Each structure stands twice: as structure tokens, then as C-alpha cells.
Amino acid sequence: MRAVCPGSFDPVTMGHLDIFRRAAAHFEELTVLVTGNPNKRTGLFTIDERMELIRSVTRDIPNVRVDWWGGLLVEYTTKHGITALVKGLRTALDYEYELPMAQMNRRLTGVDTFFLLTDEKYGYISSSLLKEVAKYGGDVRGLLPDAVVEAVEAKYRSTNG
Ligand code: PNS
Fold it and tell me: Which parts of the sequence bind substrate (predicted)?
């Protein structure tokens, strides 16, 4: 069975990477799907940059592919004949946020959502928290993959002047 792991991944964290690895061990193929509109400049990284970072940190996981989508998630899964979504859950807040989306997606097309519990090492991190810490010079090593730490630092060097 093939699955899609969707998200904004701005940028990909060690928590995401852990979910990709574990999901890839259970599915024949895992598509990490960066969602968003490539023409809108939202977030720190462009869609292309996010995809490139994900590609570089998942190079050693042979059944992971990376793609992007600007529409409804279920249009992508239907188009590719994929019947499973994978999401990571950190806390009950994530559950509250994910539950209606999972139920709506299932109602729309029958696609099922599989939840993996985040490794306890990464339960408190998010892309936005790590960006904020990095922006003000805090140490985010070990929480973002090394290539991503460098990319985030380079972004803030250029935007902070
Ligand atoms: O990493 P995020 O930002 O929490 O991911 C949320 C995401 C991308 C999974 C969600 O916003 C999404 O599914 N976007 C695609 C548009 C869509 O299908 N929306 C309806 C969901 S029921």
C-alpha cells in the first residue's frame, strides 16, 4: 500500500523525519507532500526549497518520494490512486486539529488517515517554534536536521541583514 504524508514542512524537522522513517517502514511507498501555493510567498522557505530540503534529508530512505500540491489533498490522493494518509500526533491539540480533517477527507473520498505517535524526544517541537528560536539566535541543533539548521541560519542571516 502507498501513502501520502502531507504538511507545510516550513521547514522539515527531526520530528517529521522520524515520522517519515517509521511510516516508510510500513508502506511500500511514502510520498511526502508539501502543500501550499507556490505563487504565494508565505512562510520562510519557498515550496521548492522545502521540497529540496526534504529530498536531501530523506536520501537514505529509498521508498520516499517528494511532491507538492496546491489543491485539496483528496484530489491528489484520488489522482494517484492512494488510499492512505499518514500524520504524526504530538498532543491532544494535534488530535483536535486532525480529527475533523481526517473525517472530512474520509467522507470526501474514503481515504483513511493513519496516525503515528511522535517520538517522545520530539513531542514539543514544531517548525514555527524552531524558527522563532533560530531567529533570535537560539540553538536548534538536534531538533532540525543539520542541512536544515544551516538553511534556516542562512535565511535569517539574509533577512536580519
Ligand atoms: O503541516 P500543516 O500545515 O499542519 O498541514 C496541514 C495540511 C497541509 C495537512 C492541511 O492544511 C491540508 O490538508 N491542506 C490541503 C488542503 C485541504 O485538503 N484542505 C481540507 C482538509 S479536510
Answer: 8, 40, 73, 87
Which domains occur in the chain, in start order? 2-159 (3.40.50.620)
Burial 36-69 (b: 16+ CB within 10 A, else e): beeeeeebbbbbebbbebbeebbeebeebbbebb
Residue 58 CA to ligand 1 centre (angstroms): 21
**Which segments are annotated as binding site for ATP?**
8-9, 16, 88-90, 98, 122-128
Q: Cite the active site residues.
A: 16, 40, 90, 127
Q: How remote is the CA of residue 39 from the centroid of ligand 1, in Å?
A: 17
Among the listed residues 56, 75, 34, 41, the one whose alpha carbon sits nearest the alpha carbon of residue 150:
56
Whole-angstrom distance, CA of residue 78 vs CA of residue 63 = 20
pLDDT digits (tens, 9 = 90+) for 70-129: 999 999 999 999 999 999 999 999 999 999 999 999 999 999 999 999 999 999 999 999
Are the C-beta atoms of 3 and 31 separated by less than 8 Å? yes
DSSP annotation of 118 reads P
d(CA 15, CA 35): 18
